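Morning!

This is the sequence you dropped in the shared folder:
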Amino acid sequence: MSNRLLSSEQDLEEDEFGLNAVLLFGALSSDAVLRELPSGEKVVNLEVTTTTLDGRISVPVTSKDASLGKLMVGDEIFVVGVVKRRFFRAGVALQSRTEVHASKVISGGKKAQIRKLVGVATRDLANFAEF
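The structure's back. Tokens below.
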């Protein structure tokens, strides 16, 4: 084992890092569903389908932007967010769901805004790679 692995707790904290970033472009495979949580908070659930070299992939997306509740099947969207796993009770059982939590969702027709967001994300990733 190297001395680096046996370094102080402070060094370990400085070396720890991670990256959780999602850029997703696709079409809704079902209408948006606006839900109200027991806390009173409103969330919108989206199912975004993308096409990759491996085929079609459906990705669950959630957003706190209630205005997205009007989106309908077939609408193309661009999503910026992070992957999260949430836990919830269904009856007596504890269950979990992995989904993208959107920080930004824009219409797929707004190409200039999409290019801008991709540019910002690319710059941020390049800065992260220099870490």
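Headline: Residues 80 and 100 are 9 Å apart (CA to CA).

More detail when I'm at my desk.
O.
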